[in-house]
């Protein structure tokens, strides 16, 4: 049955059918051919109970927060400020791409939105200053993936919702690995550009007084992140309430910098409706599919198969990692999460692993799926922002950063405290 499910999933996705619809179709197929119960009678209640959850309200708020910051011009100001602080490193403006992606990851919660923001702002600079298109584009695509690791993360909210784990603890667990990945991207860029200086363009130096003045552009974003995350960790607000506060803060910041307009609000709301609708269709479709999978006993079948392999817990984790890497080539990231979580997470927990730790490991693997062909969304986002060149250039440029993600996944397996230190320390 697992083989039929995998074949059906890949076949339907190859027809360019929207992912959320594919999940419903697979659920209907399982209900018709494999389930001993008439599950369609419970579809209405399932859709309502899935969508009528207060935790998921945080998703449109965080999406709106990112939309406001992008469309009000705050992204351009942030990029220019970071340019003055990091362009002296080997690699020059490439580090500004990574630094800007890191900062916007700490507010937007979306990898695609982060990549689109940085690509729109940075690409004109690359062409003007003569940077290598592969490395420059690859850094933007990879930096954008940090949006689902560094809190607040929409994907971590979905993981917490589906596994009934603490979202604040997940946010804490993602902080150190997210910062670690950002630093790894910087180090890899420095090494590459030290070996081949021509790839990184000209290193630029700015007067220290100008660098200090640029900090004023960064303070609002830092304060916004502090308010959102601080209110969650101190118990002053739930993730949903903190997201609403973040939207209000983003509007205030936009107003201070003169970015508030009727057009900005209308574009932000329209963008939020589109992205949230896509996410919720996938989540609801996945809930129905998971419901039918459980009824048909596929979860038990897969658990029995993995258990029958006779592998140690560590080897089982390595097999699961390989499964995610392979599936990441073909399945969109959010869909990959919501389809596999109800099957894989119980297996992992039964072996004695912490679900918070596994959530962060999964996010690292999901990040890789964002920049691996043929369905890596960030590749298409970055290529769409370029005026020339081929998709293969972006793909080649992400290879060093994919290696960094693999190294982070290995580090999390060897040293779980990379993810668990902050949640355990601040309990």
From TrEMBL:
GO cellular component: plasma membrane
InterPro entries named among the record's database cross-references: DctM (IPR010656), TRAP_DctM (IPR004681)
Spans through the membrane: 7-30, 50-70, 135-158, 170-195, 215-236, 242-265, 277-298, 304-327, 359-382, 394-422
Keyword Transmembrane recorded: yes
Residue span, TRAP C4-dicarboxylate transport system permease DctM subunit domain: 8-417
Cellular compartment(s): Cell inner membrane
GO MF annotations in UniProt: transmembrane transporter activity
Pfam family name, one: DctM
Keywords recorded for this protein, A-Z: Cell inner membrane, Cell membrane, Membrane, Transmembrane, Transmembrane helix, Transport
Membrane topology annotation: Multi-pass membrane protein
Function: Part of the tripartite ATP-independent periplasmic (TRAP) transport system.
Subunit structure: The complex comprises the extracytoplasmic solute receptor protein and the two transmembrane proteins.
PANTHER family to which the protein is assigned, alphabetical: C4-DICARBOXYLATE TRAP TRANSPORTER LARGE PERMEASE PROTEIN DCTM, SIALIC ACID TRAP TRANSPORTER PERMEASE PROTEIN SIAT-RELATED
Family in the record: Belongs to the TRAP transporter large permease family.
Identification of the protein by name: TRAP transporter large permease protein
Organism, scientific name: Tropicimonas sediminicola
């Amino acid at each position: 049955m697992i083989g039929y499910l995998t074949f059906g999933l890949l076949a339907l996705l190859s027809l360019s059918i929207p992912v959320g619809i594919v999940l419903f179709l697979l659920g209907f197929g399982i209900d018709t051919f494999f389930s001993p119960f008439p599950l369609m009678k419970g579809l209405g209640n399932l859709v309502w109970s899935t969508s009528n959850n207060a935790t998921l309200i945080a998703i449109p708020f965080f999406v709106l927060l990112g939309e406001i910051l992008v469309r009000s011009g705050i992204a351009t100001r942030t990029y220019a400020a970071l340019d003055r602080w990091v362009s002296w490193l080997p690699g020059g403006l490439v580090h500004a791409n990574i630094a800007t992606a890191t900062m916007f990851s700490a507010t937007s919660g979306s990898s695609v939105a982060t990549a689109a923001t940085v690509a729109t702002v940075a690409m004109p600079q690359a062409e003007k200053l003569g940077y290598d298109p592969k490395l420059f584009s690859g850094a933007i695509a990879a930096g954008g993936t940090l949006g689902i690791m560094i809190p607040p993360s929409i994907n971590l909210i979905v993981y917490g919702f589906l596994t009934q784990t603490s979202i604040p603890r997940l946010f804490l667990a993602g902080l150190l690995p997210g910062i670690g990945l950002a630093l790894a991207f910087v180090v890899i860029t420095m090494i590459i550009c030290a070996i081949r200086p021509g790839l990184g363009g000209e290193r630029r130096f700015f007067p220290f007084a100008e660098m200090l003045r640029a900090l004023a552009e960064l303070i609002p974003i830092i304060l916004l992140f502090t308010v959102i995350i601080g209110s969650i960790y101190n118990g002053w607000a739930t993730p949903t309430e903190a997201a609403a506060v973040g939207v209000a803060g983003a509007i205030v910041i936009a107003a201070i910098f003169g970015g508030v307009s009727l057009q900005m609000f209308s574009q932000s709301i329209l963008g939020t409706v589109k992205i949230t609708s896509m996410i919720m269709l996938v989540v609801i479709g996945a809930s129905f599919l998971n419901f039918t999978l459980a009824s048909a006993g596929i979860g038990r079948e897969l658990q029995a198969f993995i258990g029958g392999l006779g592998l140690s817990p560590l080897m089982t984790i390595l097999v699961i990692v390989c499964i995610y890497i392979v599936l990441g080539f073909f399945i969109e990231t959010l869909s990959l999460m919501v389809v596999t979580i109800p099957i894989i997470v119980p297996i992992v927990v039964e072996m004695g692993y912490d679900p918070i730790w596994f959530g962060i490991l999964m996010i690292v693997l999901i990040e890789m799926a964002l920049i691996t062909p043929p369905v890596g969304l960030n590749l298409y986002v970055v290529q769409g922002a370029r005026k020339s060149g081929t998709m293969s250039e972006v793909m080649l440029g992400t290879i060093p950063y994919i290696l960094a993600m693999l190294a982070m996944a290995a580090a999390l397996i060897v040293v779980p405290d990379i993810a668990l230190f902050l949640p355990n320390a601040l309990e």
